[in-house]
Amino acid sequence: MRLTVINGPNLNLLAAREPELYGRATLGEIESLVQAEAIRLGVQLEWFQSNDEGALVDLIQALPGRADGLILNAAAYTHTSLALRDALLAVRVPFVEVHLSNVFAREKARRRSMMADLAIGVIAGFGPHSYLLALRALHARLANV
Ligand code: DQA
Fold first, then answer.
1. Which of 13, 75, 126, 143 could join 130 in a cystine, given CB atoms 3.0 to 4.6 angstroms apart?
2. 123 lines ligand 1 (CB under 6 A)
3. What is the rounded distance in angstroms from the CA atom of residue 140 to the CA atom of residue 116?
């Protein structure tokens, strides 16, 4: 099984950025954690991060034929991006929306997602474990276990 993880803007600054909200792990450390679990599950995992909305659209458009599923932390674009929504609608690759923080317990603007209704599910509030939970859940859904 091939899965892709796409991370949106400012997630490259994890550890330094608002650690009380997002924790002290770097994005690289989270990737290592998730890659180790992917190996255990027999999943081939690609990992991306971009601060650029258009680059994120390009990554989503490139998914068909390349990935069976997607784990998406679109960061702030989660709450604003019709372009990402349209890309997800166009490719129809099954995905899980993830957030490190519990966006539903934060400002009103963060409680709205432009893509959650298209996702298999949403996992938020578990820090780096949100990614691990998403990986296990998506793997189980796609493997039918
Ligand atoms: C985030 C939550 C978003 O609201 C925020 O803009 C982020 C990170 C999270 O993982 O908790 O950049 O997606």
1. 126
2. no
3. 19
